[in-house]
Design a protein that fits this description.
This protein has two domains: about 270 residues, Metallo-beta-lactamase, Chain A; about 160 residues, Rossmann fold. About 35% of the residues lie in helices and about 20% in strands. Helix 9 packs across helix 10. The radius of gyration is 22 Å and the shape is globular. About 50% of the residues are buried. The structure holds zinc ion.
């Protein structure tokens, strides 16, 4: 018997959590936050330390209470695909009660450990496993990590091998032919899985509606090079904001700083936390290339220095979504000893997440910047998620018997099964829409 449980991530973008059952054994895949709810609660750092009951109440974590009541004792292991908070941040709060190990790549484990340091719960045993390896859960379930490109490092596709067939869980990914730090996706391994026969593909549908292919991370460098002659003037301040976990993007910006002879200064706690995790596992050494500053006192000291020598620095910070506590938002509110002046420039190496609260907060940030005469350049960015044509390629690469879209609400999941129908799948028979709390038996 093979059954899939959609616990979270099937009714919204966020709080991903899926379970796969073979006979009486179950494994859990991902356990993340719903970021939009955190934004509407108060700000991510404080939300991470909320009591478990409040996390459920505010819908920040997947509601696994019924699943746990019925099946908690059958769960043998929890796996996480990558270090984004909507895939791993609920692990410190929810995983302990399952009394089983948590397995993820070294970078993801470092991020989970950091998140767990803000909580009281005892963490389960954390096991690091690199892409290309297999974890034997039991004699009937083996779990394999396959390297895939995404917008944070060490992301994997998870293949669950059971006697009833292979389940491929690809939640989040993109196909990047020219990544900055990492290797290309392990296409050879995916092709081998197709030969063996894939029973089901469960796939990220965040960007399924974009009738395109997602472009490579390396194209962002060209975008920066296009912009800089116009904004890198003699006396102005230059600020770039991006996502804290986007290690490859930060690398691109560091290279750009070198090219224009400005000293890169990375400001803020969450960005320096992710960089510390990446440095700890030996993937990057940004501390050599940039000043990385955290803590109110230190940030203010550096801000004073930057304020006097404005053309010498390139500030890299968070705040691209207008988050109230992020460095850029605080700069816009004059909370540091750094003056924003006309002709200063802010480059948004990001896209606004299309939720009402993000849109409103970002608009408010832009208004404040514009009022000061600051130039704004937006969308210097490529997405970390697969477009519709990448999704088609994934279906063709794996030729799964069943197609199950995840990581999106009903509209995105419907768009996924629509694509699957173009590829010969039939809704209700070989392609399936699940909502949070539902399950499906694929093999009786
Ligand atoms: Zn992701």
């Amino acid at each position: 018997m093979l059954k899939i449980y959609a616990i979270g991530g099937y009714s919204q973008i966020g709080k991903n959590m899926t379970a796969v059952q073979y006979n009486d054994e179950i494994i859990v895949l991902d356990c993340g936050f719903w970021m939009e709810k955190i934004m509407s609660y108060e700000g991510e750092e404080n939300a991470a330390s909320l009591p478990v009951e409040a996390l459920y109440q505010y819908e920040i974590v997947p509601d696994d209470r019924q699943f746990y009541k019925n099946h908690g004792k059958q769960v043998k292991a929890i796996f996480s695909t990558h270090a984004h908070l909507d895939h791993c941040a609920a692990i410190p709060a929810l995983a302990g009660k399952y009394k089983c190990p948590v397995i993820a790549t070294p970078f993801t484990i470092e991020v989970i450990k950091k998140l767990a340091s803000e909580r009281k719960e005892a963490l389960p045993r954390l096991i690091k496993m690199k892409a290309g390896n297999m974890y034997e859960v039991s004699k009937n379930i083996n779990v394999e990590f396959i390297h895939v490109t995404h917008s944070t490092i060490q992301t994997v596709i998870i293949a669950v091998h059971t006697p009833d067939g292979i389940i491929v869980y690809a939640n989040d990914w993109r196909f990047d032919e020219n990544p900055i730090i990492e290797k290309r996706t392990d296409y050879a391994r995916l092709k081998k899985l197709k030969k063996k026969g894939v029973l089901a593909l469960i796939t990220d549908s965040t960007r399924i509606e974009d009738e395109s292919k997602t472009f490579s991370e390396s194209t962002v460098r060209s975008m920066f090079l296009d912009i800089l002659p116009g904004v890198d003037t003699k006396e102005n301040l230059l600020i770039t904001t991006t996502f804290a976990s986007h290690i490859e993007r930060i690398k691109t910006i560091l290279d750009i700083a070198k090219k224009i002879n400005r000293k890169p200064v990375i400001l803020g706690t969450s960005m320096s936390n992710y960089i510390r995790s990446a440095e700890k596992i030996g993937v990057v050494n940004f501390s050599k290339e940039a000043m990385i500053v955290r803590g109110e006192k230190n940030i203010n000291r550096v801000m004073r220095r930057i304020n006097k020598n404005r053309k010498d620095y390139l500030i890299i910070c968070t705040g691209n979504q207008g988050e109230p506590n992020a460095v850029l938002t605080r700069i816009s509110r004059n909370e540091f000893e750094l003056n924003l002046l006309p002709k200063d420039a802010v480059i948004f190496s990001s896209k606004t997440i299309p939720s009402p609260i993000n849109i409103a907060q970002r608009a408010e940030l832009e208004r404040k910047l514009k009022n000061k005469g600051v130039r704004i350049i937006t969308d210097v960015h490529v997405s970390g998620h697969a477009g519709r044509e990448d999704q088609r390629e994934m279906i063709e690469l794996l030729k799964p018997k069943h197609y199950i879209p995840t990581h999106g609400g009903m509209v995105k999941l419907a768009s996924g099964v629509n694509l699957a129908s173009e590829e010969g799948y039939e809704l209700g028979k070989t392609s399936h829409i699940l909502q949070d709390g539902q399950s499906i038996v694929l093999v009786k």
